[in-house]
# Entry
Amino acid sequence: MIEASLVLKKYFGYDSFREGQEELINALLERQDVFGIMPTGAGKSLCYQVPALMFPGITLVISPLISLMKDQVAALNQAGIYAAYLNSSLTQGQYFKALEFAKAGKYKIIYVAPERLLTDSFLSFALKADISFVSVDEVHCVSQWGQDFRPSYLKIVEFIQRLPKRPVIGAFTATATQAVREDVMRILQLQNPKVVTTGFDRKNLSFSVKTAKDKKKELFSLLQEYKGESGIIYCITRKLVEEVYELLLNKGFSVSKYHAGMDDQERMKNQDDFIYDKAQIMVATNAFGMGIDKPDVRFVIHYNMPKNMESYYQEAGRAGRDGENADCVLLYSAQDVHTNQFFIDNNRDNEELSEVELEEVMAKDRERLKKMTYYCYTSDCLRAYMLRYFGEQAPDYCGNCSNCLKNYEEVDVSKYARIILGCIEESRERYGMTVILETLRGSKSEKIERYRMNENSYYGTIWDISMERLRQIVRFLLTKGYLMQTDDGYAVLKLTESSYHLTVKGETLFMKLPKEKMAAPSQEGTMRKLEKAQSGRGRRLMSEHPELYEKLRALRNETARTMHVPAYVVFTDRTLLEMSGYMPVTREEMLAITGVAQAKYEKYGEQFIAVIQKYKQEHGEEAQAPIARAKIRF
Ligand code: ADP
Ligand code: MG
# Structure
């Protein structure tokens, strides 16, 4: 059998798996059930699509979201894979046609809505078909504890039991709570599944909170940064959606809107406009987003604080599914708390609840609102706050949220490092941390005098930073391996092989430190550098050849329009970026680009090569590409 990584390259054009994918795929290929719990954008689809292509028979993908099925099938077809979907968006005629093709064995992957599974028409196909694998996407829908319980998901088990041979089963979700997990295992009757949970951290997302007096002004200034890029603006009420939408429309933005007060048709159209890049910005209530798989959303702005962290993380998480950098900004004002409070107090959604139960629900909601509000107030790392809320451990500093960038600074600590190492060396590596620190600070303690450390030439040389900071630097040297501590109970500080990089070779050493009130003068330059980096945020996809990049984008967008597929289905921005950098002009070179697989090459490769060649001719010498990447063959 060919390897999964070759299938990945051949059909999807990717060079390597992401965290968790390979483990799940390998288990499936060994016919073991799997349960993948990975955050939005982690790449769950590939975990079932790759094995689907490797199994002898058919794969059924059960998914609750009609729009998502359509997009995924379109993407698979573009990749040269035979796939179809069976759901209520098809007319009776189309449905039976598709079933007929399915019976004739035309499709390798079939997406099906759960409510179809036990219908006579579907069973007439399924009972006779060779079904190798059933993959259940958004599997939290089986659980009443989840946010999106769907009774039709309970039919899945009965369906599987009726099949002549039990296929291997895969379950996938981004919802991690224990109650939901247990429900999935129990209700779907997974057999000794391989469970893979990847962390919930989304490193490519930068988080920030802005307390805004004038939100409209703040919004405009934010949008200046995102020219030509896709983004979502979430508002708390329909009325605000209308307001913000009008405002942006009048200012000439390419914008659409979405909320539950609009009719189905208009909503569908607007959603498509956004996915197909006809509208750049979507202004919406939280009704928008379920099943929006658009991978190149570069920003999600919350015009209001949502009601809890669960909602926030889910909505903000719609940014950057493609793994490229993206921003999540929350505009906070005290009024948001009152509005949410009002919704909680007047929530009569669930009529089955008794008065007492209702009180309990409200109390929980208020508690969650409080935690959400703390998020807007905290001066700690926002990512750490969020991850801890979801029960994960997290370091205090992420370097990619508004608090970290505000409260921490990158400091050149080389000078101090050299003094510390020098002091230790001169005292012949005999003492522990306390003695060294006291020596450097020039302590007059009896111990220091007894050890004659007051005669050390580094005695009293570090006085311009606090003791606490000095200690942090020593710890940093330990973690970075420039120093070591003996583990014989005395914890004596000793130099390491790396120490000479600092002392002799004169390397510079930077360290992230909480801001001190009085920063030493030498740190100013670094601060300025940091601020500059922040304002550029260094997150845009930047091409060395912007002109070529824009040409490739234009061709991509035009191609997508004629093919009636979203732009990213043709090629992602990352793929175009690589093309503009490496400038491939042969089939081989083209196939080495991330996201260019065989089927795509056959369809579009030559057109894109033509654009690159033309650019090269026009620009001659300056259009030099770096040496092409190692070619991957299969
Ligand atoms: P999920 O269902 O987990 O939210 P998706 O399956 O929709 O995520 O994948 C999100 C994006 O990541 C898609 O655009 C997909 O093509 C991309 N992706 C997935 N796996 C890889 C990979 N190994 N290398 C590069 N991109 C990947
Ligand atoms: Mg998914």
Notes: The longest helix spans residues 355-377. The two ends are 13 Å apart (CA to CA). The pocket of magnesium ion (ligand 2) is lined by residues 44-45, 137 (CB under 6 Å).
